[in-house]
Design goal:
The complex is a heterodimer.
Chain A: H1 23-26, H2 39-46, H3 56-60, H4 67-75, H5 79-89, H6 93-99, H7 112-115, H8 121-134, E1 150-154, H9 158-170, E2 173-177, H10 186-189, H11 198-211, E3 214-216, H12 227-232, E4 237-240, E5 246-247, E6 260-262, H13 263-272, E7 290-294, H14 298-309, E8 314-318, H15 330-338, E9 342-344, E10 347-354, E11 360-373, E12 379-383, E13 389-392, E14 395-398, E15 402-403, H16 407-410, E16 437-439, H17 442-445, H18 450-469
Parallel strand pairs in A: 1-2, 1-4, 2-3, 4-16, 6-14, 7-8, 7-14, 8-9
Antiparallel strand pairs in A: 5-15, 10-11, 11-12, 11-13
Chain B: E1 2-11, E2 14-20, H1 22-27, E3 33-37, E4 45-48, E5 51-53, E6 58-64, H2 68-74, E7 81-82, E8 84-89, E9 100-106, H3 109-122, E10 126-133, H4 142-147, E11 151-156, E12 163-164, H5 167-176, E13 183-187, H6 190-200, E14 207-210, E15 226-229, E16 232-235, H7 236-239, E17 242-244, H8 250-257, H9 261-277
The chains are: A alpha/beta, B alpha/beta.
Bound molecules: flavin-adenine dinucleotide (FAD), iron/sulfur cluster (SF4) and FE2/S2 (inorganic) cluster.
The site of FE2/S2 (inorganic) cluster (FES) has 12 residues of chain B, from loops.
């Protein structure tokens, strides 16, 4: 090309930042923080991709998205085709583009990351999916010919939604049974509006319905009907994707004082029930002035940033290790810092203090230091003797993890779980100890990521299809 | 969507409703509850399933107007629909022939104790029921309770009907008279359950209470409903709602029930204004 001299060399173009709401503005609203690429920015960023012959990014993606393929289409301004390319392998690109930890996946292994900055794959994915959705009229593929077999999916989180989409594609009659009044799982009850607008999840769910997926809400499997009863009703296979929804508390004195929430409750009130719009919506939430959040993961970051938006004067993270060990995405920690969250690191709560009304007034903490690495390879925090001090708090959110909810395993005889209650699967296919019963997502892996839960749904869809195609069932 | 089939005022601020919910009607057992949500913007509130009719595909609920949600619900009529009804939730009551049982209900708690008394009677127990209210006009389900009890004693705080005094005094009289009591079921306001549990403890009479903490999901996902039983944290929605009354920390329960009293006042006032506007 002749115009080479006018154009800087490809690898020298820096990664394009995505416009964001200013911190001082955004902590007063629940609107999304990143604003997304413009068409121009998207094309410019997509042009940074050098279209590797053997793209390492694809290997970094749990669902094998054709990354160079969709990026090229964006570079050429063929945005709709880019979205369709994404949807070939990823049922929820608008969601993944926002919540995938790309820095640990596709972008981590992008060839450009070796010498500089990776192609902003996540931002491009988000752009293409948003472009298509914003046009309104999302194309719905023709329905596959019904094959006369029925599959029940338990739980409408990302894993359940993904398998449902794949199975209707094969021609199955698929019904998802969801315990809550709204499908989406963690996408609707956990991840806040400012990171993942609920309208996006709603649009994805609507799309699934158009594809022919049936969704029955308010059905707690194990209570309203058991897995065995689903088979009795005529389902040929069952996929269990109930997540790892039960909150973990630390079992320290004072943990049941008023004003102390599990992150699940705090986020569910705010996100699913829209308590941040109380009293327009009926569900209340405590708008604490001094909010302390225990934990260093994404859930803790979501909680503390929610607290700020609910009007907290001080919002503090208490985490027992140092920043290097924090499991939260770097981007989320960065956002939290920009918004004024305080980080009280190498600190562990030992007791909650309350007043006569039983309301929390403070967190008694202990300083920690890092000792020898533990089984996870991270250095084990050890308490510093005589280091106790109190952090004042009128609201506390405990975000130290979740565990398996026992309702489904406990009511499904013959379904093997590990000692922690997670369902055991034979291999990647999600096959369990019960014939015709498959499982995937957080209920198998423990709490992980949206994309891994989706990947599990995808693989189980293939396995169920193979199982039901054998003709014995 | 669940249609309201019937609506009836039981007293000044207690309403009985029959809802269309065929699958729940078929599945529910005594002691279980539902979560309902009136509309898109509504909150999720738990209510005991008082009765059900599997053939008609309906369930019965009884509620007292205490906050905005119950106030709005009370003004709804047969033919209207609720956006969401989820259930049956919670563990069913453990029903056996225990011998001589006493079922005690206070206020709207009579609605909760009614299905228990009915199931216990059916299982062969000798059922004495004690139901109470502040005054005669607030008493509910007297006829229904009579039908499922071998003996029914009514108590009113002001003496306007039946025994003049608290239900606990009636129970104390029975114990003092040397009656054999194998089990007590005590369901009503927290102070009443606390008094009854304290009363039976020295006599070693097993006393089951049904707790009513604030709930959100009612599937064990949030922990809003946590209570302390025997020094251990329990989630009422999945571990309960019934617990051994001698082990329950009632102070904690009443504190946690007050967590949103500020906000409740706010919505009730706003709701009243709206009603006046109409
Ligand atoms: C606050 C928060 C933030 C997160 N942020 C991120 C992020 O940024 N990026 C990322 O990749 N991951 C994130 N995660 C993790 C991610 O959300 C989960 O790994 C993922 O949602 C798991 O999907 P799943 O389908 O297995 O389960 P879930 O999303 O948990 O869905 C399970 C569904 O099953 C339903 N259910 C449960 N029991 C029953 C029953 N008995 N009957 C019927 N239905 C039932 C539940 O109501 C729920 O809807 C976050 C998690 C949380 C809590
Ligand atoms: S799905 Fe996630 S890992 Fe795969 S390309 Fe998209 S952002 Fe990267
Ligand atoms: S109401 Fe959420 S765990 Fe019981």
């Amino acid at each position: 090309m002749e115009n080479n001299s006018a154009k800087p060399k490809k690898e020298k173009i820096p990664r394009h930042a995505m416009p964001e709401q200013e911190p001082q503005l955004r902590i007063r609203n629940f609107d999304e923080v990143p604003l997304g690429y413009t068409e121009k920015l998207a094309i410019a960023e997509a042009q940074r991709c050098i279209q590797c012959k053997k793209p390492s990014c694809v290997a970094g993606c749990p669902v094998d998205v054709d990354i160079p393929g969709f990026v090229k289409l964006i570079a050429e301004g063929r945005f709709i085709e880019a979205a369709l390319k994404l949807k070939e392998t990823n049922a929820l690109p608008a969601v993944c583009g926002r919540v995938c930890p790309q820095e640990d996946q596709c972008e981590k292994v992008c060839i450009l990351a070796k010498k500089g900055e990776a192609v902003a794959i996540g931002r491009l994915e988000r752009f293409a999916a948003d472009f298509e959705r914003n046009l309104g009229d999302v194309a719905v593929p023709a329905r596959a010919k019904p094959n006369g077999k029925r599959v029940a999916v338990v739980g409408a989180g990302p894993s359940g939604l993904t398998i449902a989409r794949d199975l209707v594609g094969y021609g199955y009659d698929v019904t998802i049974f969801e315990a809550l009044h709204k499908p989406g799982g963690v996408l609707v009850y956990g991840i806040p509006e400012f990171r993942l607008p609920k309208a996006i999840v709603d649009a994805e769910v609507d799309y699934l319905r158009k594809l022919g997926v049936k969704i029955e809400t308010n059905v707690v499997v194990g209570r309203m009907k058991t897995v065995d009863e689903l088979f009795a009703e005529g389902y040929n296979a069952v996929y269990i994707a109930v997540g790892a929804g039960a909150p973990v508390f630390m079992d320290i004195p004072g943990e049941n004082l008023s004003g102390i929430y599990s992150a699940n409750e705090y986020l569910t009130r705010s996100n699913l029930m829209k308590a941040y719009r109380f009293p327009e919506y009926d569900t209340p939430i405590v708008r604490g002035r001094q909010v302390v959040v225990i934990g260093g993961g994404n859930v803790a970051m979501d909680s503390v940033r929610t607290a700020l938006r609910l009007g907290a004067e001080a919002a503090t993270i208490i985490y027992r290790r140092s920043e290097a060990e924090m499991p939260a995405r770097a981007e989320e920690v960065h956002h939290a810092k920009e918004e004024g969250v305080k980080f009280q690191l190498l600190t562990n709560p030992v007791e909650y203090i309350g007043n006569e009304q039983g309301w929390v007034t403070g967190v008694r903490c202990q300083r920690m230091e890092l000792g020898e690495p533990d089984a996870s390879g991270r250095r084990r925090p050890v308490a510093v003797a005589g280091s106790e001090f109190v952090i004042p708090a009128d609201t506390v959110v405990v975000a130290v993890g979740t565990m398996a909810n026992p309702i489904v395993p406990a009511t499904t005889p013959g379904l093997d779980t590990n000692p922690r209650g997670y369902i055991l699967t034979k291999d990647d296919s999600g096959k369990t100890s019960r014939e015709g019963v498959y499982a995937g997502g957080d209920i198998v892996t423990g709490s992980a990521t949206v994309i891994l839960a989706m990947g599990a749904g995808r693989q189980a869809a293939r396995a169920i299809h193979e199982y039901l195609s054998r003709g014995e069932v | 969507m669940n249609r309201i089939v019937e609506r009836q005022d039981l007293s000044e601020n207690v309403v009985r409703m029959v809802l269309e919910a065929p699958e729940i009607a078929r599945k529910r057992r005594a002691g279980q509850f539902i979560i309902l949500k009136i509309d898109e913007k509504g909150e999720r509130i738990p209510l005991t399933i008082v009765d059900s009719d599997a053939r008609e595909g309906t369930i019965t609920i009884i509620f007292q107007v205490v906050g905005k949600t119950t106030a709005v619900l009370a003004r709804m009529n047969a033919g209207e629909s609720l956006s969401d009804v989820q259930g049956p939730l919670g563990n069913p009551t453990e029903i056996e022939n225990f011998g001589r049982v006493v079922c005690i209900g206070g206020g709207v708690g009579v609605g909760v104790v009614y299905p228990l008394a009915a199931a216990l009677k059916k299982a062969g127990n000798h059922v004495t029921s004690i139901i109470g209210a502040r005054c005669k006009s607030l008493l509910i389900l007297e006829q229904e309770m009579k039908q499922v009890s071998d003996r029914l004693i009514v108590a009113t705080d002001d003496g306007s009907y039946g025994f003049h005094g608290f239900v606990s005094a009636v129970l104390q009289n029975m114990i003092d008279a040397g009656e054999k009591i194998d089990r007590v079921y005590a369901i009503g306001p927290v102070p009443m359950m606390r008094v009854l549990a304290n009363l039976t403890r020295p006599y070693g009479i097993k006393t089951i209470v049904s707790l009513n903490p604030i709930m959100v999901d009612a599937t064990g996902m949030c922990g809003a409903c946590r209570v302390s039983v025997g020094g251990k944290t329990k989630f009422t929605c999945v571990d309960g709602p019934e617990f051994d009354g001698h082990e329950v920390d009632f102070n904690l329960l009443s504190n946690r029930l007050r967590m949103y009293s500020e906000q409740e006042k706010q919505t009730m006032e706003a709701h009243r204004c709206e009603c006046h506007g109409k």
